[in-house]
Design brief:
Elements: H1 12-31, H2 35-50, E1 63-66, E2 69-80, E3 83-88, E4 96-99, E5 103-105
Antiparallel strand pairs: 1-2, 1-5, 2-3, 3-4
């Protein structure tokens, strides 16, 4: 039985290789029309990327752009593990958690 390492136990190089493998598998699933498999693999890659982000770079109380969702902003209330908890601006104000790899500072690009 092969046991995989947890993302938290991987080195940066192992994480980058895992992300590349997941994105390649997602690309193949997309080409084959396997929409659900593509979505799962893409989410796994986003979670692996969260382990490459320094949690101290996400500041509670600050607003961030959401990668992959242009024009939508996320107000961070607090961090728990590799997730930022808060709410999206401009809609109903309900609390949700996003992997920290999905958050980009407002000052970066547009």
């Amino acid at each position: 039985m092969v046991t995989e390492k947890k993302y938290s136990q991987m080195t940066e190089q192992e994480l980058r290789q895992a992300i590349a493998n997941l994105l390649e598998q997602a690309r193949k699933a997309s080409q084959l029309g396997h929409v659900n498999e593509y979505a799962v693999l893409e989410r796994k890659a986003i979670m692996a990327q969260a382990y490459l982000v320094d949690p101290s770079s996400i500041v509670p109380g600050e607003m961030y752009r959401i990668e992959g969702d242009p024009g939508v902003f996320f107000q961070v209330d607090y961090l728990k593990g590799r997730f930022a908890w808060g709410y999206r601006l401009g809609g109903e104000k309900f609390t949700e958690a996003l992997p920290i790899s999905m958050l980009k500072p407002l000052k970066e690009g547009k």
